[in-house]
DNA sequence: ACCTGAACACCGTTCAAGT
DNA sequence: ACCTGAACACCGTTCAAGT
């Protein structure tokens, strides 16, 4: 409920920011000690979340990191939930534009999905946090915008265009989520071998191998997105 | 670390279970009091998770619900994390088979994705919990199995078949996730209207409306899956 | 305007002790 | 074999009090 309207670090577009990593206020060193700002809190919180996930972000740990009393944080950001809200908000705002590349609409659409996937992979915990806060639509706004443009260029309009855009967004999100799951837990239970033995794979060893471990997610991503674009537009995109 | 091997309620296939809703041990009523079993704990935990989400499942609340001391629970399930593990494990095991319907492979594939979506929607918190535990592959095993069969029937083999199966799974998961997000947070911030005004929708009001609120997720789901199947198989599925 | 420590209600978990 | 209360370390949050 604290109506802080500072909104620090809006940047000049979104890509380059890294210098101002709250290195100013270190108290543990005994060095110079500035006044704590809302931006400091967000920076420190962002660092913890990025490295250890949102679960590891406790108010007390954050305070220790900043060299302040726990209660000071509350003055600047309200409470933990509002802190996470602000963090997500800032990260989403800093994601930057998505630019299509290529000549044909189909190719340009594929390039947008690739850019979106790259963004999502760059912020491993962001998707879940955005999801919890009901900001999904907003987070995908830039990508949606770009897709709208390309779908229009492909000649689609109205409801049909909207459905194509949404199908593509869902595809990317689903892919990244499952992909990340595999990265985090490479060895599944009860283990891939037993899950895809000869019988369950219907005597198709190459298929069993393909399902047990996707050797090239990049390739799989391109393939599925291209299939989807082809099915939706009736045009085959080119590499 | 407690090696309890009871594994209650494995059922006779998976669909019908509902009678044994831990109504036996009610202590608050002052009625008859059986010995607490691992199954009781899992049942009560499942009820809480189903109604209020995994976050609301605290050991103390669970104990109160069961009419026991908190520490009794630990004897039966180890700790909170193992409790959730067991819960997910049991739920996944009880999900049941997925049967394809229809004549052509393309149509049957679509029917499998619909069944999978219905399963996921029936357990709103399951996907996230499974995801956290790295059990995604296992959870989708029945659906994958069914898809493998149909893709084989469509004449695909090996790596190509595996890629088709995976693309479809990703599509379904992504769809359900985003769909659920919209249900939970119907009013987005900063609001759909402002997000899709005339300019951002490139002067296509029907598209703006389509993106602001998907009137029929069922329809959108079918459309996108069919497009994907068509793009992957080169065959158009029929309703 | 900003920061502080004390205090509260709530967690998960351990452990010695009961039956 | 099962259950218990006491106790520990950790949470988020509030509040009166400082400067």
What's the structural blueprint in terms of helices and strands?
2 copies of one chain form a homodimer.
Chain A: H1 38-52, H2 59-66, H3 70-77, H4 80-93, H5 105-122, H6 126-132, H7 136-139, H8 141-153, H9 158-184, H10 192-195, H11 205-212, H12 217-233
The structure holds a DNA duplex (19 and 19 nucleotides).
Question: What descriptors fit this protein?
Answer:
homodimer, 239 residues, mainly alpha, Arc Repressor Mutant, subunit A, Tetracycline Repressor, domain 2, flat, DNA-binding, repressor (chains A, B), Tet_transcr_reg_TetR (chains A, B)
Question: Any overview of this molecule?
Answer:
Two copies of one chain form a homodimer. Chain A is mainly α and about 240 residues long. Chain A folds into two domains: about 90 residues, Homeodomain-like (Arc Repressor Mutant, subunit A, Orthogonal Bundle), CATH 1.10.10.60; about 140 residues, Orthogonal Bundle (Tetracycline Repressor, domain 2), CATH 1.10.357.10. The longest helix of chain A is centred in the last third of the chain and has 27 residues. In chain A, about 40% of the residues are buried. At the A-B interface, helix 7, helix 8, helix 9, helix 11 and helix 12 of A face helix 7, helix 8, helix 9, helix 11 and helix 12 of B. Chain A binds a DNA duplex (19 and 19 nucleotides) through helix 3. Chains A, B: InterPro entries: Homeodomain-like_sf, HTH-type_TetR-like_transc_reg, HTH_TetR, Repressor_TetR_C, Tet_transcr_reg_TetR, Tet_transcr_reg_TetR-rel_C_sf. Chains A, B: Keywords: DNA-binding, Repressor, Transcription, Transcription regulation. Chains A, B: One of its GO terms (molecular function) is DNA-binding transcription factor activity. Chains A, B: This is Regulatory protein, tetR family.
């Amino acid at each position: 409920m604290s109506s802080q309207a500072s909104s620090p670090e809006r940047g000049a577009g979104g890509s380059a920011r890294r210098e101002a990593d709250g290195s100013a206020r270190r108290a543990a060193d005994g060095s110079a000690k500035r006044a704590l700002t809302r931006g400091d809190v967000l920076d420190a919180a962002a660092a913890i979340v990025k490295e250890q996930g949102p679960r590891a972000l406790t108010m007390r740990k954050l305070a220790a990191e900043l060299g302040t009393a726990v209660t000071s944080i509350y003055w600047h950001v309200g409470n933990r939930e509002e802190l996470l809200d602000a963090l997500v908000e800032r990260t989403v705002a800093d994601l930057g534009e998505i630019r299509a590349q290529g000549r044909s609409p189909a190719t340009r659409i594929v390039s947008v999905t690739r850019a979106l996937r790259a963004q999502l992979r760059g912020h491993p915990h962001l998707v879940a946090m955005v999801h919890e806060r009901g900001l999904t639509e907003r987070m995908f706004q830039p990508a949606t915008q770009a897709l709208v443009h390309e779908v229009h260029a492909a000649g689609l309009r109205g409801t049909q265009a909207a459905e194509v855009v949404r199908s593509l967004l869902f595809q990317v999100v689903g892919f990244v989520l499952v992909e990340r799951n595999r990265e985090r837990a490479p060895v599944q239970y009860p283990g891939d071998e037993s899950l895809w033995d000869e019988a369950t794979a219907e005597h198709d060893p190459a298929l069993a191998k393909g399902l047990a471990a996707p050797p090239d997610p990049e390739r799989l991503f391109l393939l599925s997105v291209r299939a989807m674009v082809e099915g939706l537009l009736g045009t085959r995109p080119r590499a």
